[in-house]
Amino acid sequence: MTRPFILLAFCLLAVTTVRAQSALVVMNQTVNVGYTNVRLVDALQRISDRFGLYFSYSADLVPVNRRVSLRSRPRKLSRVLQELFDQVGVDHARIGNQIVLKKRKRSIPENDPDEEAPEEDTMNKDYGYEPPKQSKPEEMYTSSRYTIGEATKPISSQQTPLLVAQRAPREDSLMVTLIVPTEIEEEEEEQNSWPGYDGPAAQISIVPRLSLNTPRNNGSKGNNVSLNILGGRNKAVNGVEIGGLFNQVDEDVRGVQLAGLFNIAGGDLGPSRWIDEVGVETSHGVQMSGLFNMANEVNGVQISGLFNYAGADVEGVQITGLTNIVRGSSGGAQIAGLVNINRGDSEVQLAGLANIARDVDGSQVSTLYNKARRVSGAQVGLINICDTVANGTYGLLNIVRQGYNYFEFGGGDAIHLNAQFKFGSRQFYNIVHFGKRVDDRTWSLGLGFGTALRHTPGRMINLEVISQQVNEDEFWTTELSLLNQFRAIVSQRTGRGYFYWGPVLNAMVSQRQDAEGQIRSGIAPYTIFDNAKLNIDHNTHVTIWLGFNAGFRF
Questions:
Q1: 311 burial type by CB count under 10 A (0-12 exposed, 13-18 middle, 19+ buried)
Q2: Whole-structure pTM value
Q3: In whole angstroms, what is the distance from residue 333 CA to residue 499 CA?
């Protein structure tokens, strides 16, 4: 039974040796290979198809989607691979005709690419294993030997064992050597997310596909400086792009985009490394146009005449004549002539008409409408709607779902029975009032505003202003008949509600004629001021007196 095993071992060893020698010849072969801004995985596939080499790696550890470039010139294939892997921080080892890739643990000083370093064949004769250059083998691999028939220890799911070679040191056993990647704690490597950085220094176009970027390559290159006479379309910009009418970029814009009509960035808008390197510091990207700007994630400024659109988050400022739209969150200010729309969180929104956001860390200010969920600042507008607000809502209609919302029932000397609904924020709330006198047909309907000043946990002081249309002895009085009240109310908690009381300053202004044809109001129990007695303005009756108000709040 031992002879088949010995024969199998010699066959495997022969095959391994032949492959190793063949791969060594290929690695030392002088080739002419050049690539420009291609993914590492594509470059490896082309090399594999052309030279018969095979690459083993984990896509989770090796950045195979990183882009690499090689200048086309004759050199050894081993040197080509070294230059490729140095660009992405990867070490490699040759095992037979297999090239094993491993993310580099520490940086290795780069050599002059034009200087051919002498290459030493360090292949282990027994196993066909060549350790990576300038890196200790034990830092990357752990070698273990197992005997067929013996129980092997389990290998971690994150370790991929590689068969290196087979040999038979004794006639009765077959030894198998495995190279197992050692689990090494990897540091996060900053990804190069600047697709235009390695592109040409500049490009000029008249219209899309009529440019220095040839028609075949147009839209597939990035640029550091792009000048579009009428308009242009490029892959990426890492610097400055200026268009007479429009600029369109399929991926990221890093720097400044200026256009007469519109700018479109299919990727993100952010600061430019190229501008920093030539000595001009910039912390944000910029889009400026006459009509509109569009980008995905914005780390900068968008300024346009009509609207700005961001498909993700904005860390900066949007300024436009009409509308700003953000589908993510905004960490800066949105300033619009009409409307700001933010489907995520926002910092500050200023609009001529309306602001809409989820959570606002600052304030919303508009002339008509503000809507958010949580506001850490204030809302200022005609209509304000939110769930919670820290610094108050200030407008004609304020709806705060978890705000100052109470119903009151009480009485006073002018209008005997009063029912009021108060809603809004503690700093500023609305009042809807209904009142009825018990001795006649007089009733009132009014609106007001108030603020609650907290005194102690169980007591508060309210200051309120209410104006009521008083209908005396009829269903509706068409003439001017307003009862204006300024109230100072003290509230004391009683169980789940409050008992309130306080003085009221009343000012009745009426142009109603009574049954005797005189212009006067009859609801004042007494007066401290009566213009009729002073023979002042016989067309309007004004009376002022001090009264009281008391009731319960729930």
A1: middle
A2: 0.60
A3: 44
**Distance separating alpha carbons of residues 256 and 301, to the nearest angstrom:** 9
Q: If you ran DSSP here, which 8-state letter would residue 152 be given?
A: P
DSSP string, 53-116: -EEE--TTTS-TTSEEEEEEEEEEHHHHHHHHHHHHTEEEEEETTEEEEEE-SS--PPPPTTS-
Q: What does the alpha-carbon distance between residue 430 and residue 449 come to, in Å, rounded to a whole number? A: 5
Query: Which residues, 6 or more positions from 241, have their beta carbon under 8 angstroms from its beta carbon?
Result: 223, 225, 226, 227, 228, 232, 234, 247, 249, 253, 255, 256, 257, 258
Predicted confidence (pLDDT) per residue in 484-503, tens digit = 999 999 999 988 899 999 99
CA dist 73 → 35, 115, 187 (Å)? 11, 13, 34
By percentage, how much of the chain surpasses pLDDT 90?
34
**Burial call 112-145: b when 16+ CB within 10 Å, e when fewer:** eeeeeeeeeeebeeebbbbbbeebebeebbeeee
User: In DSSP terms, which residues pair with 294 in a beta bridge?
Assistant: 264, 309
Q: Do residues 500 and 408 lie in contact, with contact meaning Cβ atoms separated by under 8 Å?
A: yes
Task: Determine phi and psi for 85, rounding to 5 degrees.
Answer: -75, -30
Residue with the bigger pLDDT between 47 and 321: it is: 321
- Alpha carbons 333 and 450: distance in angstroms, whole number: 30
452 closest CA partner among 399, 405, 384: 405
What does the DSSP 8-state code read for residue 284? S
Angle at 364 between CA 359 and CA 368, to 5 degrees: 120
Residue 154's pLDDT is what? 42
